[in-house]
Amino acid sequence: MKIMFFDIDGTLMEDSSSHYMPESTPLALQKARRAGHLLYVNTGRPLCNVDEDVRCLGFDGYICGCGTYIECDGKELFYYPNPKTLCMEMVQLIRETGCSPLFEHRDAFFFDPQARELPFITMLRQTFRMQEKNIWRSTDDPDFRFDKFVIAYDGQSDMDTFRKGIAPHFTFIDRGEGFAELVPAACSKKTGMDFVLQYHHLDKADAYAIGDSLNDLPMFEGAGTSIAMGNGEKLIPYADYVTADLWHDGVYQAMEYFGFF
Question: Architecture of domain 84-184 in CATH?
Answer without folding.
Answer: 2-Layer Sandwich (3.30)
